[in-house]
Write a structure and sequence with these properties.
heterodimer, A: alpha/beta, 18 helices, B: 399 residues, mainly alpha, two-stranded antiparallel ribbon, 2 strands, 72% helix, binds adenosine-5'-triphosphate, binds magnesium ion
C-alpha cells in the first residue's frame, strides 16, 4: 500500500529509491517494508513519531547500517553500501542526528579528511587552509579553518559537515534533524545556502519534528509510523500541512499543541542581579552582560534568542556549569547563595536539562533506568543501599507517562531513538523534583504527541508553585507555553512580553535587532 | 494515558524465557559472565587432564587459592578504579613496599602481629591517599601518577632495604597459615551465598513490583546457581583439606564489599556514571573528586592487605617482588569484562578473570613448563578474551 503512494508521486527522475526496506534490531522491528522514491533536485522531508524508524532508514541509505532486507537504487542503479565511505563515494552523505566529530581535528582538516590536497606526496597545507577558508566563507561560517572541531557548536559542526559533503560532489544530502536547535529563521538561511550552491542536481532528505518549518523548506513529505510509510504527499497546493502530518502520525487531530495551564504566579523564587558571564569562545568578551532577572513561583519564563545571543549561556551559568567566569549575585527565596558547580545548584533545588544531550545529558552505554535516576540517587538511598523498589517504580512511571519507546528499561540508551533519549534526559531531571527548573531545548527531537505530555509535566511543576525557565529556539513553543517571554540579543535582555502579547514576528524582529547602546 | 504498545506491559506476569530474548538477556552484564565461567571450567578440565589429576587435588587447590588471593583482592580493587576511567599501574611496587614495611615492623621494631597489620594497612592507605591527592585534586592523569609510584616506590623499597630481602617476624605467618575450621568455613560460605541470593531475590521482586518483565531464572536462578556452584566447590575444598584458608576469607570479604558497593549503592552507580560520561556525571551533580578519592584510598588499603598476604606467603619481603603484577591485574579485570575506557565492569567477572589467569600459571607450573610459556599463554588469552567480548557486544568496531 505504502509503495503505491510512493510510486504515484514519483517523477520520472528519481535521485534515490528505497524498496521494501526491512530492519529488525533483536526483538524490535524498526522498519517494515519501507518504499520511498526521492525525486531529483527536491527537498524531501520525512516526519514521524519518535522511534518510527526515520533515522534507521537514512542510516541504511547512507551505509551506516549494512545489514538489512530490501533494495536501494541511486540514480537508477541498484546499490548496497557496506560502509559510510562506500556511500560517500557514490555521492550519498548523511549528517546524523547525533553528530560526532573528532574533537581534536581542525575544521580544515575535517573538511578535507581523506582527500587532502597533495603535493609531492605530502599534504599541501597551504592549499588545504586556503580551500577550507573559502568553503567556510561560502557557508558564512564564523569559524577559522584552524579552529578545533570540538570548540564549535553543534550547529557549526553540522554546517561544516554539510560543507564537507558539498566539496565532495554530493548527490544526495541527508540531514537528520539538523535544525532541532535552530530558530526558524536560521533554518531557512541554512536551506537557502544549500539551495544556492546547488540549484541543480542535489537532492536533500530532511528529517524534522518541527512541522511548520517543513512547510517552508520541503517539496514532498513522507510520514512514518511504526516502521511504515503511512502518508506521502506533495506540499504544493496543500493548505494545512502540519495538520495532515499530525493526523498521519498519530491518527487523530491535535487541537492544542501548547496546553498552557496558567498557574498562580507568586513571589520571586530566583533573583539574579548584575549577572555577567565571560565568553569562552573567540570574539566577544562577554557572553552575558549585566542581566537582572526574577523568576516567580508558578511562573514559566521563556528565554528566546538567536545563535550566539547568550540565551544558552544564561541557562548554563545559572546552573553553575558555564566554563567562563561568572559574576553577579543570586538569591533563592531571598537567601543569597553561591552556585559555582552543578552540585551547588542541585543542592539549592535547581535542575537543568542541557541542550547538548549526547555530550551533557546521557550515558549512552548505560541503561535507561540508571540514566534516569542518576541525578536523584539520594532520593533512593536507604541505609546506604539503593531502594530498587522505589527506583524502578518511578522509572516505569516516567517511561509510561512520556511514552518512551523501548523494549525494557534495561536497554542501553544507545538503542533508543533520538527523541526517546531526550525524554529520558528530561525525566532524569523531573525525578529530582526541583524548585527551579531550567530547560534548554526541552523538546529537542521530541514528536508532537510526546511534547504535549512533556508540557503537561512542566505545567504540573509550575502549578506546584515552582519556577520554570525554558530556553528554546522553538519560538512557537516559547510563545505557547510561557507566562512571560524574554528576548536576548548579544548578551542582554532586549524585550519582555507577557503571555499572548507578542506575535512571532515581534519576537523575531527584536531578537535579530542589532543592539545599540542606550536603546 | 495508555502507553505505546512496545512499552513494557505493566503488571504482566513474567513469561517464560523466550528464545528471541536471548541476545538481549545475554547482553546484560550479569549473564556476560556465563561464557567466562564455561571457559574457566574447560581450562580446569584440560589442566586436570594434562597434570594427571594433580590440578584439582585438594592440596593444589589450597595452594592455588593462596596464589589467587593476592591477584583477586587487587583485581577487585582495580575494577573500582577502572570503572570511573582511572587506572593503577603501581600495584607491583606498592604491594612489595607494603610487604617490606610489614617485615621491618616485625623484625626491626619487634612489633607483634596486630600493630604490624595496622601499620602496614596505614602505609597502604597513605600511598592510596597520595594517589588520590594527585589524581583528584591536582588533576594529573592516574596513568602518570601511578606510573610515577611504580618507579618511585620500587626505588624507595630498594633504598630502605639496601636491596636485601628481609625476613618478617614469624608471627605474621599466621596470615597465610591460619584457616577457619571446615565447619565454620562452610557456615561462612553458606552465609556468603545466601546473602547474594537474597539480594538477587530482592532485585527480582522490585522488578515484579514495577511491572518489568523479567524471568526469575535470569535474575535469580542462574546467578545464584553459578555462585552456588563456586561456593560449593570452595566448601568441598575446605572440608577435604585444612578448612577455609584465611587468604580465601580475605578475598571473599573484599569481593563482597567491592561487589556490593558497585551494584547496590549510590556510590557504585556514580562510579559507573563517571566512567560512562564524565561531563554528564558532573552535570548530574556527582562529586567526582570525592568519588575518585574514596576509590584510591580503598585501593591503598588493598596494597597493605596484599602486602601482608605476600609477606606471610613468602616468609620474606624481597623488595623486588611482584614485578609486573599490575599488568596481570589489569589483564584479569579486562578478561572479566572491565573496560579500559571506564563505565563498564563487574567485580565477579574480574575475580573470575583472576582465577583463570592464576589457574593457567599454576597448572603450567605443575606441568613444569617454564614461565616463558605461561606468559605466552596469558597474553594470547587476554587478546582472545577481549576480542570475544567485543564481538559479542555486536557493536561495530570503530573502524
Ligand atoms: N541499535 C539498536 N538496537 C536496538 N533497537 C534499536 C537500535 N537502533 C534503533 N532501534 C530501535 O528502532 C526504532 C527506530 O529508531 P529510529 O532511531 O530509526 O527512530 P526515529 O524515527 O529516528 O525516532 P526519533 O524521531 O526519536 O529520532 C526505535 O524503536 C529504536 O528503539
Ligand atoms: Mg532519529
Amino acid at each position: 500500500m505504502s509503495a503505491d503512494i510512493a510510486s504515484s508521486c514519483a517523477a520520472e527522475l528519481s535521485a534515490a529509491k528505497v524498496v521494501g526496506i526491512d530492519k529488525r534490531f533483536g526483538g524490535a522491528h524498526a522498519l517494515r517494508g519501507v518504499s520511498i522514491t526521492f525525486e531529483k533536485g527536491g527537498v524531501h522531508a520525512i516526519a514521524g513519531e519518535n522511534g518510527a524508524g526515520k533515522s534507521t532508514l537514512v542510516k541504511i541509505l547512507s551505509g551506516v547500517i549494512g545489514d538489512y532486507a530490501g533494495a536501494i537504487e541511486i540514480d537508477g542503479v541498484g546499490r548496497r553500501f557496506d560502509s559510510i565511505r562506500d556511500a560517500e563515494r557514490h555521492g550519498v552523505f548523511l549528517v546524523p542526528q547525533e553528530l560526532s566529530v573528532v574533537p581534536e581535528l581542525r575544521v580544515g582538516e575535517y573538511l578535507f579528511l581523506n582527500r587532502e590536497p597533495q603535493r609531492w606526496g605530502m599534504v599541501d597545507t597551504r592549499k588545504l587552509w586556503a580551500d577550507a577558508a573559502h568553503w567556510l566563507d561560502v557557508f558564512k561560517l564564523d569559524a577559522s579553518p584552524l579552529e578545533q572541531m570540538g570548540n564549535l557548536s553543534t550547529h557549526q559542526q553540522q554546517l561544516v559537515s554539510i560543507a564537507r559533503a558539498m566539496t565532495q560532489g554530493v548527490k544526495l544530502l541527508i540531514l537528520d534533524e539538523p535544525t532541532s536547535s535552530l530558530t526558524e529563521r536560521e533554518t531557512e538561511l541554512m536551506f537557502a545556502r544549500i539551495a544556492d550552491l546547488h540549484r541543480h542536481g542535489v537532492t536533500t532528505i530532511y528529517i524534522s519534528h518541527r512541522l511548520r518549518e517543513l512547510e517552508r523548506v520541503a517539496n514532498v513529505v513522507s510520514v512514518m509510523r511504526d516502521g511504515r510509510v503511512v502518508d506521502h504527499f506533495r506540499l504544493q497546493g496543500q493548505s494545512d500541512t502540519p495538520r495532515r502530518i499530525v493526523q498521519a502520525m498519530v491518527g487523530r487531530d491535535i487541537i492544542e499543541m501548547y496546553p498552557k495551564v496558567a498557574a498562580k504566579v507568586g513571589e520571586p523564587i530566583l533573583s539574579v542581579r548584575d549577572w555577567t558571564v565571560e565568553s569562552t569562545g573567540a570574539g566577544r568578551v562577554h557572553a552575558i552582560k549585566n542581566i537582572h532577572l526574577d523568576v516567580r513561583s508558578g511562573e514559566i519564563l521563556g528565554v528566546f534568542g538567536l545563535l550566539g545571543s547568550g540565551a544558552f549561556d544564561l541557562a548554563r551559568s545559572l546552573f553553575g556549569a558555564h566554563a567562563g567566569r561568572v559574576s553577579g549575585s543570586m538569591q533563592i527565596r531571598g537567601q543569597v547563595i553561591s552556585v559555582r558547580t552543578p552540585r551547588d545548584a542541585i543542592r539549592n533545588g535547581i535542575a537543568y536539562v542541557p541542550a547538548e544531550r549526547k555530550r551533557d545529558g546521557l550515558i549512552e552505554a548505560h541503561s535507561i533506568e540508571s540514566n534516569m535516576t542518576l541525578a536523584a540517587l539520594n532520593r533512593f538511598n536507604r541505609y546506604g543501599i539503593l531502594n530498587r523498589y522505589g527506583e524502578l517504580q518511578r522509572v516505569q512511571q516516567y517511561v509510561a507517562s512520556l511514552k518512551v519507546k523501548c523494549g525494557s528499561v534495561e536497554q542501553p540508551m544507545s538503542q533508543l531513538s533520538g527523541g526517546n533519549q531526550q525524554k529520558v534526559v528530561a525525566a532524569k531531571w523531573l525525578l529530582s523534583e526541583p524548585e527551579i527548573f531550567i530547560l534548554e531545548e526541552p523538546t529537542r527531537g521530541v514528536d508532537v504527541n510526546a511534547r504535549i505530555d512533556l508540557y503537561a509535566l512542566v505545567n504540573e511543576i509550575a502549578t506546584a508553585g515552582k519556577a520554570v525557565i525554558i530556553v528554546s529556539t522553538d519560538l512557537p513553543e516559547v510563545l505557547g507555553m510561557c507566562d512571560r517571554v524574554l528576548v536576548m540579543c548579544e548578551g542582554r535582555l532586549v524585550r519582555e512580553w507577557m503571555h499572548g502579547q507578542a506575535s512571532e514576528e515581534d519576537v523575531m524582529i527584536s531578537a535579530a535587532e542589532e543592539y545599540s547602546e542606550g536603546a | 494515558m495508555t502507553s505505546t504498545k512496545t512499552v513494557t506491559e505493566r503488571g504482566a506476569p513474567a513469561k517464560g524465557f523466550q528464545l528471541r530474548d536471548l541476545p538481549a538477556a545475554m547482553s546484560q552484564d550479569r549473564l556476560r559472565l556465563l561464557p567466562l565461567i564455561i571457559v574457566l571450567l574447560i581450562v580446569w578440565m584440560v589442566l586436570q587432564y594434562l597434570t594427571g589429576g594433580l590440578f584439582l587435588s585438594a592440596r593444589n587447590l589450597t595452594n592455588l587459592s593462596g596464589q589467587v588471593a593476592i591477584t583477586a583482592v587487587l583485581t577487585a580493587g582495580a575494577v573500582l578504579v577502572m570503572i570511573p576511567g582511572y587506572i593503577d599501574l603501581s600495584l607491583g611496587a606498592t604491594v612489595a613496599a607494603a610487604a617490606v614495611v610489614a617485615a621491618i615492623a616485625g623484625t626491626n621494631y619487634e612489633l607483634s602481629l596486630w600493630p604490624t597489620v595496622v601499620i602496614t594497612l596505614a602505609f597502604g592507605l597513605l600511598i592510596g591517599l597520595w594517589h588520590a591527592f594527585w589524581v583528584a585534586w591536582m588533576k594529573v592523569p592516574s596513568f602518570i601518577v601511578t606510573l610515577g609510584s611504580l618507579l618511585a616506590i620500587r626505588g624507595l623499597s630498594l633504598v630502605i632495604t639496601n636491596a636485601e630481602t628481609i625476613s618478617p617476624n614469624p608471627d605474621i605467618l599466621v596470615i597465610s597459615d591460619a584457616s577457619l575450621s571446615p565447619m565454620l568455613g562452610i557456615v561462612v560460605l553458606f552465609a556468603f551465598w545466601l546473602a547474594f541470593a537474597l539480594l538477587q531475590v530482592r532485585e527480582w521482586r522490585a522488578r515484579q513490583a514495577a511491572g518489568i518483565r523479567s524471568s526469575f531464572g535470569a535474575v535469580v536462578g542462574l546467578p545464584a546457581a553459578s555462585v552456588g556452584i563456586f561456593t560449593l566447590g570452595v566448601m568441598i575444598m575446605a572440608a577435604s583439606y585444612r578448612g577455609l584458608p584465611l587468604p580465601v576469607v580475605l578475598v571473599l570479604a573484599v569481593v563482597a564489599l567491592a561487589g556490593w558497593s558497585l551494584r547496590f549503592t549510590a556510590f557504585g552507580r556514580r562510579l559507573y556514571a563517571i566512567g560512562g560520561n564524565r561531563q554528564a556525571a558532573l552535570l548530574a551533580g556527582i562529586n567526582i573528586r570525592m568519588q575518585a578519592s574514596l576509590v584510591f584510598a580503598f585501593m591503598g588499603l588493598l596494597y597493605g592487605l596484599a602486602g601482608l598476604v605476600l609477606v606471610a606467603r613468602l616468609d620474606s619481603a624481597p623488595p623486588g617482588a611482584m614485578q609486573g603484577l599490575e599488568l596481570n591485574v589489569i589483564a584479569a579485570a579486562v578478561i572479566g569484562g572491565t573496560s579500559l575506557m571506564g563505565g563498564r565492569g563487574t567485580v565477579a567477572g574480574a575475580v573470575i578473570g583472576a582465577i583463570l589467569m592464576e589457574s593457567l600459571s599454576n597448572g603450567m607450573s605443575l606441568m613444569n613448563l617454564p614461565s616463558a610459556y605461561q606468559s605466552i599463554t596469558v597474553g594470547l588469552v587476554l587478546l582472545f578474551a577481549v576480542y570475544a567480548d567485543l564481538r559479542s557486544r555486536g557493536g561495530r568496531f570503530g573502524d
